TrEMBL record:
It comes from Cloeon dipterum. Keywords: Membrane, Transmembrane, Transmembrane helix. Residues 208-283 form the EamA domain. This is Solute carrier family 35 member F5. GO terms for cellular component: membrane.
Amino acid sequence: MVQGAQVMPAEPSSAITDETNTSTMMNSHEDFQIGLNRSQKFTLGLVLLVLVDIIWVASSELTKYLYEEEAYQKPLFTTYVKTSMFCVYLLGFLVYSPWRDMCSWSSSNSYVLMDPNVEDTNYFTDSPPPLSEPTYVPLKRPECSRSTSKSSGTESDDSGVRSVRFSKLAEVRQMSEEEATAALMARLSYTASVRADQIARRAANKLPVSKVAWLAFTFCVLWCMANYSYQAALEYGDAGLVSLLSCAAPLFTLLLSAAIPSEPMDRISLSKIAAVAMSIAGASTVCWSSLSPSFPLGASLALISASLYATYLVSLKKKVPSEEALDVPMFFGFVGLFCLLGLWPVVAAFHALGLEKFEWPTRPQWAVMFLNGLIGTVLSEVLWLWGCLLTCPLVGTLALTLTVPLSFLADALLWQVQYPLRVYIGAIPMVAALIWAGFLSSPGANGERSAPRDPLARWILIGWNKLTSPRNSFSRLQGEREREQTESLIGVNNSSTSDHEA
């Protein structure tokens, strides 16, 4: 009796059995980020932030239409609806296979980076056997083998010839995960192995689903408070003052980044202070005509919103080491789920206390809220956070201030509103502040961001040295000239002396 033996790979490797399947896995959206260097990713982040500014200006127009034309001034319920719409990203677990793999695979089944310089000594140590204990499963024989065996029995009448009978059970052994991964990598070509190594490095640095969910649970309250305080500031305060005070977010970001830096580039510098000052000065010039002399409740809410946005962004950047570690759509999907489950008691409490009476929206109001939430929240917030992770928190908040001049420009183009010249002049330092901050935070020639740049401090120091020590510079230059003349004279005298002796 002969038993059939089969060796089966482990679960993670059984899903990828050949080079074709592996190449298909590699040809995902992650290939785009793998092919970009640090400078290109930074440029992509700037483009995303400018695109988000345009989307937010359109969203502000929809919010204004909802508050004024539709007369539905419910900032808390509007925030609850738009934030809950983030749950649409959780559908990715149904249609996106890498997310499902992250749920099904345990920590031991994740990618493991193998060091090629380390010698493999598994066969010379007392390590566990590479194959599991045998299991026996019924063997399915094809019909052709049965017919063949029957015909072979009738061809010969010699009863003395012994026939061989196979067992109806097959012995199956599972390969260990290490052996299965090594066998898979050994079958790949060089190009596929390089790409597999890149994918493995990204997967090793990727936050698991549990940590992404916990991160979303930690920051959802902070994000909702920042969003609601801004929506409430638009209702209770003057629009120009709210826009101006919202531009204080870069200042809070600069101070918080210096207090809890996530990388050396986040340290405070004189050049960054100048960039923030230019942005605030430009915003003051733009909003000067619409400022009110009082300091209403809306102004306080605007400052709270700016500080909460800065805290949320700096803290998240501190928790997430790089843009590759966090799956941004998954993060916001969990934020929407937690807000959907946790904010409705707050809406009920506001209704009971009389802070915001709940009214069921009409069909046009639902349509405006749905469109505003889909474009101005679900899409724009993901792009904004992705752009901030690709750049830095200071650049992200400075880009946020550009919505102020862009909103004035949109009113001038769409509604034919006439604004004074200082509105357009004030937009110049705001754009210059973003460009200046982008230059300060951009990676160097080697793609590294090891130390912050501070060219303004260096220029001031050079100018100060030239102003305070002009005589020393002149005397130093005069001494160098005399030294050169002395050396030349010594050379002439030596040559003439040698000719005279000859």
